[in-house]
Design goal:
The complex is a heterodimer of chains A (387) and B (120).
Chain A (H helix, E strand, L loop, with lengths): L1 H18 L8 E14 L15 E13 L4 E10 L2 E14 L2 E8 L32 H4 L10 E12 L3 E10 L13 H5 L13 E13 L2 E13 L7 E13 L2 E13 L19 E14 L4 E13 L11 E16 L2 E12 L9 E12 L1
Antiparallel strand pairs in A: 1-2, 1-16, 2-3, 3-4, 4-5, 5-6, 6-7, 7-8, 8-9, 9-10, 10-11, 11-12, 12-13, 13-14, 14-15, 15-16
Chain B lengths: L1 H20 L16 H14 L6 H4 L6 H12 L8 H26 L7
Classes of the chains: A mainly beta (387), B mainly alpha (120).
Chain lengths: 387, 120
């Protein structure tokens, strides 16, 4: 019953916000949403079923968002989404913008990290799935890998100060610094528990009382009338266990280049995660006395998005991850595991607001699975609507 | 049995793609620049470039916003999103295009609602 309270309350709040009569003063409301249904097929797997190591079959992602501008300085955003993990309050925050350089954001939001998260909604990226470093459940062998480096989105409760300063008409610098509750994991844990981190079952309450902090800075330069480049760097640090003994540090850099209609996106991020070494038997390899209490998961992608016609986009993407460090005793991964994927995708506008996505993926893992496979082939066919 | 399952799933996947893509409807989220007045095309190009970085053009074009002040606030908000890459230089042409587009939408609606302008 309690699990239904959050979605019910959010839906009710959305309905009230939309239906509430606007006062005489200007109050701008904008209601948007998206829905994606995707079918994933992995024919190379021995019985064409990948669950629980990957979602094989239909999946849906639904989202509704309302943005309210009270005036030039105060606005609010509320977004409710439903995905493979159930209902989620993706956004519920206020922005108080004092000036371009100082905006105070408070509530529930994804702290500013990297370039991809701005486009995490399935209506805003052209493939059915996300780049591997930001994967939240569409990757094969997701349980062994415990998803990507930083599964996106990553909404959290806290405060962020961000801003923009323009240097002339063509260059501007953005920054963001924040303090949020941080990711969660078990006491004596081996990795972050992303399900627990985003689950409303614990009422979005922090598990250790110590905020995580981070920031991002980026510079955007306009190269020409229809060309620009954005270069960014991000970092985030916190502890994930209730005892505040196990830390994580996530850092990365990104480059987004737009040359007329061509988009080139390059991003790298890594997560250094400490784990508990008290129980040696829980680990596959002997714990090294020095620097043996953490692993580092690296991830990166290069993506080129090229419109072929007004209605057809071609997407080429290469992405991968490298996990360096000890693993759980029963893990199929090794001390130096890699996964590389190549994707060829198409996105086609059926009618304004409705788009078909189709992609083919080639996977190569460094480790064998229970059937001695290291190679997989995957197909996605999706339909995404947006308004 | 395994082949039958695979065939059924591949067929479902193919039907989803072909079925939706083959719908004989008017489409395009972007506008056809050749249908725009000469003095609007350059502004539209900046709008299309700027506003398609993070979301589809359908979002602003179908938003129903027609008020210039609301557009100004909306575009400023987008520009100030961390990492948006939208510069101050982009704002003016984007707002000029949105002004044109809003007027065009209002005129189209007015015409459709007039006694002799509706569907025959």
């Amino acid at each position: 019953m309690k699990r239904l309270l959050l979605p019910f309350a959010l839906l009710l709040a959305c309905a009230v916000a939309v239906a509430w009569p606007a006062p005489a003063a200007a109050l701008d409301r904008n209601f948007v949403g998206s829905a994606q249904v995707d079918y994933s097929l992995v024919p190379t797997h021995h019985d064409a079923r990948t669950f629980p190591n990957g979602f094989d079959g239909f999946t849906t992602e639904l989202a509704g968002k309302i943005a309210v501008d009270f005036n030039d300085h105060l606005s609010a955003n509320m977004k409710l989404c439903f995905g493979c993990h159930g209902f989620e309050a993706d956004m519920m925050y206020f922005d108080y913008r004092i000036r371009d350089e100082i905006n105070i954001r408070a509530g529930r939001f994804s702290p500013t990290f990297g370039a991809f998260n701005l486009r995490h909604d399935p209506a805003n990226h052209r493939t059915s799935d996300k780049p591997l470093p930001y994967d939240m459940g569409r990757m094969l062998r997701m349980r062994q890998w415990n998803l990507g480096v930083l599964p996106s989105p990553f909404p959290d409760n806290g405060v962020e100060v961000n801003g923009t300063h323009a240097f002339g008409a063509r260059t501007q610098v953005d920054y963001a610094v924040y303090a949020v509750a941080g990711f969660k994991g078990a006491s004596g844990g081996s990795d972050i528990d992303f399900q627990a981190s985003r689950s409303p079952s614990s009422y979005y309450v922090d598990n250790n009382g110590r905020p995580a902090g981070g920031g991002r800075t980026s510079v955007a330069v306009k190269l020409g009338e229809l060309s620009d480049v954005v270069l960014g760097a991000s970092a985030m640090y916190g502890t994930y266990d209730p005892d505040n003994k196990l830390s994580y540090l996530i850092y990365g850099g990104d480059l987004t280049l737009r040359l007329n209609r061509t988009n080139v996106r390059i991003e790298y991020l890594a997560r250094r995660t400490e784990f508990d070494t008290a129980n040696q038997a829980a680990w596959k390899y002997t714990i090294a006395p020095q620097r043996g209490n953490f692993f580092v998961k690296h991830g990166g992608y290069v993506e080129v998005e090229q419109p072929m016609t007004r209605d057809l986009d071609l997407i080429l993407r290469g992405d991968g991850m490298l996990r360096d460090g000890n693993v759980a005793a029963d893990s199929q991964l090794s001390a130096h595991s890699t996964v590389v994927r190549g994707t060829l995708g198409l996105a086609y506008v059926v009618i304004a607001g409705l788009r078909v996505k189709a992609s083919t993926e080639v996977w190569k893992f460094s480790d064998t699975d229970e059937t001695n496979r290291t190679f997989e082939l995957g197909f996605h066919a999706g339909l995404v609507g947006t308004f | 049995m395994r082949h039958a399952t695979f065939l059924a799933r591949a067929t479902a996947l193919a039907l989803l793609v072909v079925g939706t893509a083959a719908c004989p409807t008017e489409r395009s989220e972007a506008l056809d620049p050749s249908t725009l007045p000469d003095d609007v095309r350059a502004d539209y190009a900046v709008f299309a470039h700027t506003c398609s970085k993070c979301h589809s053009l359908q979002r602003p074009l179908a938003s129903g916003i027609t008020d210039d002040m609301e557009w100004k606030r909306y575009v400023a908000k987008m520009r100030l999103q961390p990492g948006s890459g939208i510069t101050i230089a982009d704002e003016e042409p984007v707002l000029r295009f949105l002004h044109y587009y809003s007027r065009r939408e209002i005129e189209a609606k007015t015409q459709a609602m007039s006694p002799d302008g509706g569907p025959q």
